[in-house]
Design brief:
CATH topology: TIM Barrel
Strand order of the largest sheet: 1-2-3-5-8-9-10-15
CATH class: Alpha Beta
Distance between the termini: 23 Å
CATH architecture: Alpha-Beta Barrel
Shape: globular
Order of helices and strands: EHHEHEEHEHHEEEHEHEEHHEEHEHEH
Largest sheet: 8 strands, parallel, barrel
Radius of gyration: 20 Å
Strand content: 15-25%
Helix content: 40-55%
CATH superfamily: Luciferase-like domain
């Protein structure tokens, strides 16, 4: 099992006018440097355009910057929001990024979920259809020989034959046949997991409870098998916040009283508690986190820290991760949100050091990988 991180980035201090955007970017790069130094495995960056507390509209730029500051850390997007890009231009930028990172780049594709982003781009409920068409175009550019033409509903690709005069088209991915592609899911029967399984992409589960996670893997597995692929748990990434300090009490205090606790209380939990209408049924997303019989009102930061997150001393966190992995039947990577501890940076640096040097070596043989496992990072699910 590998350990990694996902940076939205959470930036309440930026929204409050206490931090500049440049400082938010620099904190992401500092986290990348520490993660690389302490042997942690990967770091993903999100894309949002109109969300002030998650202010990164260009994960590919952050990946490019972080690649120059690191040597081993894999760097991914979670995710490129495909309806907001010309897929021909994006396909070429990402191939170039694959070379720039020396093959450490992980692609992530999503349709976009924030309504204000969609409003700005003039993209409505057709996001999923646009995403699917964009994926088809990107994969064609990455893998097909020119010339070819694709006449889609939203875009048209007319890839020219190779020209001796112009010596192109010429660009192909660094990784063969292409970078690993990851797609995220929240709902137990997530349609993106169906798409990922069908296409042979890697699944990444957001922070939901055990029952939802097990159903997500079942959904992905059935889609992959139905498409004639063999699903590999080594490519399953699961989100669950992890925080390590010298003692259990110290870790709990630093999480609850620090930026992590504030982020969950002020940003994440209100989103999870909000009631939505799905197919005529009222529900709150936070119900996916709760134990059976719990009410949404019981979803508090303290409950999450004590019952859901993986928080404590190195010994405690190793024990919790081991139990978590066993309940899931083995996963490839455990990812945690990053938080803006820039004003108490030594706390966060020590957390990463303990995670990389004391926890990671003791859980390396968990999951489906093991010492002897070999996974082709460029093809997430084998045909």
């Amino acid at each position: 099992m590998h350990l990694g991180f996902f940076s939205p980035p959470y930036a309440q201090a930026y929204v409050d006018g206490q931090r500049t955007l440049q400082e938010v970017i620099e904190w992401d790069l500092q986290v990348a440097r520490w993660a690389d130094e302490y042997g942690l495995h990967e770091l993903f960056f999100a894309e949002h355009h109109t969300i002030g507390h998650e202010p990164n509209p260009a994960p590919e730029l952050t990946i490019a910057a972080a690649a120059r500051e690191t040597t081993r850390l894999r760097l991914g997007a979670a995710a490129h929001l495909l309806p907001y890009h010309n897929p021909m231009a994006l396909a070429h930028r990402l191939m170039y990024l694959d070379h720039l990172t020396g093959g450490r780049y992980i692609a992530g594709f999503a349709p976009g979920s924030f309504p204000t982003d969609g409003q700005m781009f003039g993209v409505g409920p057709g996001n999923a259809k646009m995403m699917d068409e964009a994926i088809d175009i990107i994969m064609a550019i990455w893998t097909r020989e020119a010339p070819f033409r694709i006449d889609g509903e939203f875009w048209t690709v007319d890839m020219p034959a190779h020209s001796e005069q112009w010596n192109g088209p010429h660009l192909k991915p660094f990784q063969s046949p292409h970078p690993e592609v990851m797609m995220t899911g929240v709902q137990p029967t997530s349609p993106t997991f169906v798409d990922a399984g069908r296409r042979g992409f890697s699944p990444m589960s957001q922070q939901v409870g055990m029952a939802a996670l097990l159903k997500q893997w079942e959904t992905y597995e059935e889609a992959a098998t139905g498409a004639g692929r063999t699903p590999d748990r080594a490519n399953w990434r699961v989100m669950r916040d992890v925080f390590v300090a010298e003692t259990d009490a110290e870790a709990r205090r630093l999480f609850i009283e620090g930026p992590a606790g504030r982020t969950w209380d002020e940003l994440v939990l209100p989103t999870f508690r909000a009631v939505r209408d799905r197919g005529g049924k009222k529900y709150a997303l936070g119900e996916l986190l709760l134990d059976p019989g719990m009410a949404i009102e019981e979803l508090t930061l303290e409950w999450l820290v004590d019952n859901f997150f993986l928080i404590g001393s190195p010994d405690t966190v190793v024990e919790k991760i081991t139990r978590f992995d066993e309940e899931l039947g083995g996963i490839g990577a455990l990812l945690s949100f990053t938080f803006d501890y820039s004003q108490e940076s030594e706390t966060y640096r020590r957390h990463l050091e303990l995670l990389g040097r004391e926890v990671a070596p003791r859980i390396a043989n968990l999951g489906p990988r093991g010492d002897a496992a070999s996974v082709d990072a460029s093809v997430a699910v084998t045909a």
